[in-house]
Design a protein that fits this description.
single chain, alpha/beta, Enolase-like, domain 1, seven-stranded parallel beta sheet, about 20% strand, binds magnesium ion
Length: about 375
């Protein structure tokens, strides 16, 4: 019996900064900045002596918990991570990720792109999809929800109708800019859709505790499955106090970054659900650790990511396919199938009947479209 030869070594690390427009400007609750029209993406390519190239993505998100810029991510990866990576086999992923974490504290966003590229490389070297490296197929498709931008009630319902027609049955309403508008939006959505959709709300940490408590009480009658991050990421005591005061389960997103942050959420009973994101939480390598802790603590898991391309979408979807435990229907971003106006891969991941599939090809399952990369790269 012969085995594929996994003895390949990384010889170069190539980093591509990109700015990709949203299909529509998106509004969420955030002091001083509520609307964005594009996302900054960093694509990492790990080149090997065998000719294989592994790809991974992260984003310069710069909202609660993220201070990253494309320039900063570029420097972290090329100056600190590259010397650690060159000469190593991607199959040393555990040891490599440990080294990266030790070499640059608070570098989960940069680690995410490297770790996911290592998994892509391993899959390509062995000729198997990434989910086979993570324990094998546990589900065939990954149902996804959709996040709706904050807008006036009529437009909110129109957004919801379009999402419903596209097959989505889990809709996330962004709240937190205006309590009266939030209540009206949620009420109008529930009146329009009845029990046909699961509705949830996400304040992106935009409320103070004293704003959040009365708003959440007013939202209780509308059967939301969760309300996400009503108060800022740092306010775990506020999350815990709200969790014990309202009947709707709370989800933590901006409060969740490292393993330690999740242990603290568990310890304080600050959330019943957590939202992981590939960039925020260190890619496939990091989110699987968080999911294991969450599952052990009886906390529900929303798989997710920041708006990003099909590369990041594939990383989440591969991880979901291989996860043996329960997963909630995350409204994880699906490249040009959701918020982005364009993608950087030849065949963007699609959402069919509200679900994502991953192609049965080696690695993450997506191939870079060089023309699109050239179009959106911002380093000349
Ligand atoms: Mg969120």
């Amino acid at each position: 019996m012969t085995f594929p030869d996994p003895k390949i070594a990384i010889r170069d690390v190539d980093v591509v900064p990109l700015r990709i427009p949203f299909a529509q400007p998106f509004t969420f609750a955030a002091p001083h900045e509520s609307m964005r029209d594009s996302v900054e993406v960093l694509l990492v390519r790990l080149h090997t002596d065998a000719g294989l190239v592994g790809i991974g993505e992260t984003q310069a998100w710069r909202r609660q918990g993220s201070f990253e810029t494309l320039t900063g991510l570029h420097a972290t990866i090329t100056q600190i991570f590259k010397p650690i990576l060159v000469g190593r086999s991607p199959f040393d992923v555990g040891a490599i990720m440990q080294r990266l974490a030790a070499a640059a504290d608070h570098s989960l966003y940069a680690q995410a792109a490297i770790g996911d590229a290592l998994y892509d490389l391993m899959g390509k070297a062995l000729g198997v999809p990434v989910y086979q490296l993570l324990g094998g197929r546990c589900r065939d498709t990954v149902p996804v929800g959709l996040a709706l931008s904050i807008t006036a009630p009529d437009a909110m319902v129109e957004q919801g109708k379009a999402a419903f027609a596209a097959g989505y049955r889990h809709l996330r309403i962004k709240i937190g800019l205006d309590p009266a508008l939030d209540v009206t939006n949620v009420r109008r959505m529930r009146e329009h859709f009845g029990d046909d959709v699961v509705l949830r709300a996400d304040a992106n940490g935009g409320l103070s505790f004293s704003q959040a408590l009365p708003l959440l009480k007013k939202l209780e009658p509308f059967d939301l499955d969760i309300i996400e991050q009503p108060v800022p990421g740092w306010d775990l005591d506020g999350m815990a106090a709200l969790a014990s005061s309202v009947s709707v389960p709370l989800s933590a997103d901006e409060s969740l970054n490292t393993d330690h942050s999740l242990v603290e959420i568990v310890r304080r009973r600050a959330a019943a659900v957590v939202q992981t994101k590939t960039g925020k939480n260190g890619g496939i390598h990091g989110i699987r650790r968080l999911w294991a802790i969450a599952q052990a603590a009886g906390i529900g898991i929303f798989p997710g990511n920041h708006p990003g391309t099909s590369v990041a979408t594939a990383a989440v979807a591969q991880t979901c396919i291989a996860w043996p435990g329960p997963l909630l229907v995350g409204d994880f971003q699906t490249g040009s199938a959701s918020m982005l106006g364009a993608d950087i891969v030849r065949e963007p991941i699609r959402v069919v009947d509200g679900s994502v599939r991953v192609p049965d090809v080696p690695g993450l399952g997506v191939e870079i479209d060089e023309a699109q990369l050239k179009r959106f790269r911002i380093d000349g």
